[in-house]
Design a protein that fits this description.
mainly alpha; single chain; 11 helices
């Protein structure tokens, strides 16, 4: 069984508290809080997904089975960070076009790189063994670059985003961001409660019908991604608004990262019931606790690095895994050699992800912000 599940895009880490200085020389109240533990959660979830795909494609004996729920957790993180960063700006006049431009600047450089890697993998396969039809390949590439699914390559893979499968969840990320900004001024407490109720119902429905929430990435069931995104994203929005009113500093709250690991590595067990419990109850508790974590001189630098790594790792790991695992199986590696190759692949994509983050993603986004969005806030 193949668990081709991609996490939602890890959004940019929130800035550290800034101390603006008033005209009188006194330090004003901090305007932005940094949630270091959330960076750690995002990085842990990204690595869990890589381990899930590695175990699946290399046919290892153990899989972190519920790592596919990292998608739902990242939807939740996205709602929290987006609301924290943009609620006030949207309330004071930032328009839909400006908001979506900011989001595309954040997401698209790594999307483009992941698509190029995936396209190169397809072309390499065609050059060595054939079987790739050029026109459907170009059709799928064009559609996927526009954040739209395509059935053009279902004769090879059933995915809606066959060039670089992580884009299926990025697609829903962008769509839910657009919905959020369009209906922002109508999001009263009662309406948010109604959205959460509908979203919870859709999550339960998807889990019952599909025997768990490992769904949404296949072309035939792509619509179920919409059932998965609604509750997590808007719960994150609600939690961000609550955290603005109720501030706590809990040194022990960093254990939320251990709780997330335990949830993602949990074995399969009545997933139609367990998956909604994790998404609707456990993940909200983990996020709520981590959002109250106090600063930690030892852990915070680790969490920050994991946060930087998470999105590039998500965006480009999949094509590498497919190519290297196909090479291992095609050359009939022994079980020991196959396991060592799987370990090498994980280390390799971690290094590639870090290089992509520091040498490509950050410089490109700085350039785009300077050229296209000169008034963009620094937190972007």
């Amino acid at each position: 069984m193949t668990y081709n599940v991609m996490m939602i895009s890890p959004v940019a880490p929130l800035m550290h508290d800034r101390q603006p200085v008033s005209a009188a020389g006194r330090t004003a109240r901090p305007i932005t809080r940094h949630y270091a533990a959330l960076d750690g959660l995002r990085g842990i979830a990204a690595i869990a997904v890589v381990c899930l795909h590695t175990g699946d494609y290399f046919q290892l004996r153990y899989l972190p089975y519920h790592a596919y729920l990292a998608v739902d957790f990242f939807f939740m993180l996205s709602g929290f960070v987006i609301a924290h960063a943009y609620d006030k700006r949207l309330a004071t006049g930032v328009g839909v076009g400006t908001f979506m431009k900011i989001r595309l600047i954040r997401l698209y450089p790594m999307v483009l790189l992941g698509m190029l890697v995936g396209l190169a993998a397809f072309l390499g396969k065609d050059a060595t063994s054939g079987g790739i039809r050029l026109i459907p390949l170009l059709q799928a590439t064009a559609m996927n670059l526009c954040f739209l699914p395509s059935p053009a390559l279902t004769y090879l893979r059933p995915w809606g985003f066959p060039i670089d499968n992580p884009l299926w969840s990025l697609c829903f990320e962008l769509w839910i961001n657009l919905l959020y900004v369009v209906i922002f001024r109508f999001l009263t407490v009662s309406r948010l409660a109604a959205i959460l109720a509908v979203g919870a119902g859709l999550s339960v429905w998807a889990a019952v019908v599909f025997h768990g929430l490992n769904t949404g990435f296949i072309w035939a069931t792509f619509y179920t991604g919409g059932a998965r995104v609604l509750f997590p994203f808007f719960f994150g929005v609600v939690l961000a608004r609550l955290c603005l009113r109720h501030r706590a500093d809990w040194p022990w709250a960093h254990v939320a990262c251990l709780a997330l690991i335990a949830a993602l590595v949990a074995p399969s067990f009545h997933d139609a019931a367990l998956d909604p419990i994790l998404v609707l109850l456990v993940f909200p508790a983990i996020l709520a606790i981590a959002a109250q974590a106090s600063a930690n001189r030892v852990l915070d630098p680790i969490w920050q690095r994991l946060g930087v790594l998470s999105y590039p790792l998500y965006a480009i790991h999949y094509p590498f895994l497919v190519v290297i695992s196909n090479f291992s199986h095609g050359h009939h590696f022994s079980p020991v050699a196959n396991n060592l190759t799987a370990l090498f692949t994980v280390m390799f994509v971690l290094v590639i992800g870090w290089l992509a983050a520091t040498l490509y993603d950050a410089p490109v986004r700085r350039f785009l912000n300077k050229r296209l969005n000169r008034q963009a806030p620094a937190a972007v």
